[in-house]
Write a structure and sequence with these properties.
single chain; mainly alpha; two-stranded antiparallel ribbon; two-stranded parallel sheet; 54% helix; globular
Length: 185
């Protein structure tokens, strides 16, 4: 049994980067998605963006973009989803802190409320778009996957990033790397 993620994902064959990111981030929100727990799945995906943003950029200084926003700006193309990194940040704030759709910035009217959907919206459904933007959660998952691929590639392009990756990744917790000790009766 290993406690250190490096033992499992760094082998004589190399670093199994994609597998690590899948096990720690994609698998948990995939399980919830497949079970129809879409809001919980969205929350975990946004936590994944948060964690990966921290791994890439570290802590942010007051007044600058958060690592979440920086990471999306650097690696994601959200044009097909029709949301911005800043809107997703506020969506994250409202869902994770209050389990509603209205962050402080949404309440102030400076950012529109984001509303996720899964599937196709029938043409007869009238969307209230004055203060809200609707996005396809499946499209966001796809784009997050593409952004992760681009991010992972950045480590091949610049191997000097790897030391900082290890330092920051050691601070990330996940179900796949949690120590499980069998209980005796």
């Amino acid at each position: 049994m290993t406690v250190d993620w490096c033992d499992k994902y760094i082998t004589e064959k190399g670093f199994r980067f994609t597998e690590l990111i899948n096990d720690d981030f994609f698998q948990p929100f995939r399980v919830l998605y497949q079970a129809g727990h879409y809001v919980s799945s969205i929350k975990l995906m946004l936590v994944a963006v948060d964690s990966i943003g921290y791994i890439e950029f570290g802590e942010s200084s007051r007044g600058e973009d958060t690592p979440f926003v920086k990471w999306l700006n650097e690696y994601a193309d959200l044009t097909s989803v029709e949301v911005t990194p800043r809107e997703l940040w506020e969506h994250r704030n409202s869902l994770l802190h209050m389990s509603n759709l209205d962050s402080r910035q949404v309440q102030k009217g400076s950012i529109k409320r984001l509303v996720a959907y899964v599937g196709s919206i029938p043409p007869e459904v009238e969307l209230l778009e004055e203060n809200a933007k609707y996005y396809d959660y499946r499209a966001l998952i796809h784009e997050f996957g593409q952004a992760c691929n681009k991010w992972i590639q950045s480590y091949s392009d610049d191997p000097s990033k790897f030391d900082q990756f290890i330092q920051r990744y050691d601070l990330i917790v996940s179900d796949s790397r949690m120590l499980h000790i069998p209980l005796t009766s």
